[in-house]
Amino acid sequence: MSILSQLRSFCSRCLPIPKSQPDCPACQAIRRCHAQKIAELGIGAGQRAARMIEAARRASPGEAIHYVGMDRFEGRCETDGPGLSLKAAHQLLRADGVRVQLVPGDPAETLMRVANSLGKVDLLIVPAEMDSPAFARTWFFVPRMLHEQSLVFVERTAEDGSALLTLKPRQEIDALASVAARRAA
Questions:
Q1: What does the alpha-carbon distance between residue 180 and residue 32 come to, in Å, rounded to a whole number?
Q2: In the chain, N or C terminus with fewer CB closer than 10 Å?
Q3: CA dist 155 → 23, 51, 118, 119, 161 (Å)
């Protein structure tokens, strides 16, 4: 194990994650469900991704972990907020026993392009804008990536401007996918 991996492991084991952190529910779900395949639309500055990867490594020691991040990377504009370059994201997220797959492009469009080839994921995080009518057609592709125990979290913005993750029920995802399919027909 590299020194950087050892340091990340130590920090994640010994330093508590405050309950106010937006990724707390995702990391808890990863530990509870032993999630090994995680996908995230819009990785931003990458801290949540790094914590989720470490949570998966701790929850499933010795198992292969697969993280897929879809982001604009170098194509980010000012309204997208802070972010990483593709190279910086690889450097941050690289860890022993973890397959990191980063897909550049608009996250919603990228999801539609790669949903069939990704296979089933244990945990998916989608940005709040995907819940808007403009992204309704994207939900059609989400069920293709899910198995019966998959969890989908939607990022929301709280009144104070902080990000929150809320679990999206499977029935709601299937209903959104059905509406998107009817509109496409």
A1: 32
A2: C
A3: 9, 16, 21, 22, 12
